[in-house]
Amino acid sequence: MPYKEHFLYNDKIIIPIVQRNDHTEDRHLNISILEVADKLQIKIRDLTDYSFNYSDTVGLADFELIRCAQSLDINFSEFKANIIDMLHQYQKKEMYLKCQISDNKCTLVFYMKSKIKNMVYLTLDLQKTNETEIIAEIHAEKQEAQELIRKLEKQLGKTKKLVEEKDFEIQDIEKARKLMLEQFCKNLRYIESWSTSKLVQIQNQVLTKITALSKKINILQTNIEILKQENNLKAVSSDRLMKTMENLRVENMESNRLNEKLKKENGALNILRCSLERNVADMKKTVDELQSVNRNMERKQIELEKDLGKLSIIVTQKESKINELSKDVVQANNMLVQFNSCFDEKAQQLNELQKSIVSRDRIINEQKLQNNQVLIAFEEYKREFSAERFGALEKDLLMSRRKIDELEEEMRKINKINALLTHKIGQGCFGMNMK
């Protein structure tokens, strides 16, 4: 078989085989179509059964016989394209194909199914291939298989070399891994010792700073109590001042009322005096009566002058009292200014304490982050260490976390106390301002 010719079609498909006793079986058959010297060579064979091998060569004269026998409406060039197209349609299940075996002949039948009957498009009769050609095909396939085996042996040798190289690389990687593992163990031990020492140092530092803070807070509490007592005393004195001021205001209002009454009486006397002067001529007869009236008036005038003297004395006394009260108010203002300056100093101290507490919180959060990183490193390499050692490490880490949580709880309590103190101091200042 001329294998070096150009194949128009060469594929392995499943075709139903109809035997002479109408027995049908499906086989995987190889159909090849190639063009040799303006002729079409069609071959069908079973690669697993060398006895099933049929072929035929269709030339122009042979095609004319087929065309006349089967009433085909195509020429020879169209026949080549149509037979390949029908095979593709069969592979797509758009057409049917079967192979009928009888004696030394194989008939390929291309047909379509309808409700009434099968419509045959084309039938091709293939003759059994002679033995010499079959032997030549077997020999050619054997040579191809040997060539393929040689290529596979070469490829196998290359793959063996690659496998050996990869084995050497794996050994080198294993050595490097062991070295890295040893280095990691050393680093881990160093990290453990360093972290424990750091934790102890930080715990000691935090404890000392917390004790110092607690002492400062106690001092602040005592100072705040003293300030509260002073504030209460000042509030009592200011209440007394306010009461005296109110009493003076009431007395001043009463003196103003007396002045108004005296002015009214003086106005009435002036009116009477005018009426008396107008009626002097008419009152000559009653001079004695008028003299007595004048004497009475003089007495009243003397009494009024005495009352006016008394009023002037009272006014001078009120002015002296008002001056004393203004001096007391000035002293109270000075005391309030001193209290405000002292309160500002204490507030500044509280702010500094709050800043130090915030810095301690930051240090604790950074330590927590470092502990979390160490935990993550422990989790990543947990499989390479014993469970007992990891249990001890986890206990130590849990203890350190609990201590850190306790420290954080103490810091929260201190923050709450500071907030309450600032709130109470603010309320005390607000009460002073209101008073």
UniProtKB/TrEMBL annotation:
One Pfam family per UniProt: SAS-6_N
Domain named Spindle assembly abnormal protein 6 N-terminal: residues: 18-126
Keyword Manganese recorded: no
Residue ranges of coiled coil: 135-165, 210-335, 364-424
InterPro entries: SAS-6_N, SAS-6_N_sf
Gene3D superfamilies: Spindle assembly abnormal protein 6, N-terminal domain
Keywords annotated in UniProt: Coiled coil
Protein's UniProt name: Spindle assembly abnormal protein 6 N-terminal domain-containing protein
Taxonomic classification: Eukaryota, Metazoa, Ecdysozoa, Arthropoda, Hexapoda
